[in-house]
Amino acid sequence: MPKLKLIIITAMIILFSVFNGLQVARSGIKGFFAGFIVTFLFFTAVFLFQTLFYIVSVRKLTATGELDISDYQSPFDIWLISIPMCVLMMVTYLFLGWYVVQVYICTAFGLIGMLLGNALGRGSRKWTLRKSMPFFTGVIASTVFSMLMGWLV
Amino acid sequence: MDKNKVNSRGRGSSEGFFDKFKYLLLLSLNPVGLLKSSEKHRWYIYLVFPASGWLLFFLQIGIERFRQGMFTAWTVILISFLGLVAGYLVVGFIGWILAYILAYLGYDMAPDKVIALIAMSHTYMVFSVLLGLIYNLFGNSSSASFGIAGLLCTLMPIYAGIRTLGKGKAFLPPLIATLVGVILLFSWQLILIIVS
């Protein structure tokens, strides 16, 4: 099951990268591969960092009694929210003709970061940087990505 | 104060108004809380919330196209009105469909709760399109970006709500969120086609 989820998440990352590549190519300044490679590498880096940070944090928070292990949510389950985002991105691009792939990617970083933070117990008991870190990194990733796209497009 | 005259949300007193306002505010920020409540919800009132969000979104699109010379003032009013009506009807329809799907899957969830959950999930969308409208008034055009960001934020509480109901079914929340999102997007497209 985790393997299937990982395959689906990878497919979503590839689709996001393909459509962003198409959008970058549409602007005519840089080609498809520039957009594709930058998006793929950046998205993969964010995914790996967020997921590994979450797994390590859950262990620490559980060890100190700040998180009940029965509340554990698989990070892959949380990343599955990229499915609706990716499908909607394709519908928007292909049927509505709105070329806003970057909005989808940036919102995905922000929202998934928020969900990972919530799963770590963000907002409950004592505030710690560890619990809020996925949210902060999601926002930072979103901002850095939009700056990268400003450079590409 | 005679406590017997005041119910749990304190209707019928000045204190009751603030209690009710606080309750609605908390509910709009955390619509999943609706699933835990046992009382009946007046879903037809909750639907005013997404309707206003859609009104603001289509008003933004209308203003944008008016500036580009594609719409007249009357078309802007028409598209905003269509947004208001469609927001009410489509979100209600989605809630009804979702309640049916959940019942089919074996989750005993009253339709009024599901419709209220979907309606209150539009808080972040209302907030997003409101920001977009302010941005638009300064002469910047990005209604699609604010609308899409709002729509994605709307899916979050729906996702969380289905997740709460369907524990252990990892693929159910993303699939239902996809269905809801696709219906919302195609409804937007339909309104744009009607007006264009």
Could you please describe the fold and organization of this structure?
The complex is a heterodimer of chains A (153) and B (196). Chain A is mainly alpha-helical and 153 residues long. Chain A is 79% helix and 0% strand. Chain A is built from 6 helices and no strands. Chain A has helices at 2-27, 32-63, 75-79, 82-96, 101-119, 129-152. Chain B is an all-alpha fold and 196 residues long. Chain B has one domain (31-195). Chain B is 73% helix and 0% strand. Chain B is built from 8 helices and no strands. Chain B has helices spanning 14-29, 43-46, 48-67, 73-104, 111-120, 123-137, 143-165, 172-195. In chain B, helix 3 packs parallel to helix 6. Chain B is globular, with a radius of gyration of 18 Å. Chain B starts with 13 loop residues before the first helix and ends with a helix. Mean pLDDT of chain B is 83; it is low at 1-12. Classes of the chains: A mainly alpha (153), B mainly alpha (196). The A-B interface holds A 1, 5, 74, 76-77, 80-81, 83-85, 87-88, 91-92, 95-96, 98, 100, 103-104, 107-108, 111, 114-115 and B 144-145, 148-149, 151-153, 155-156, 159, 170-171, 173-175, 177-178, 180-182, 185-186, 188-189, 192.
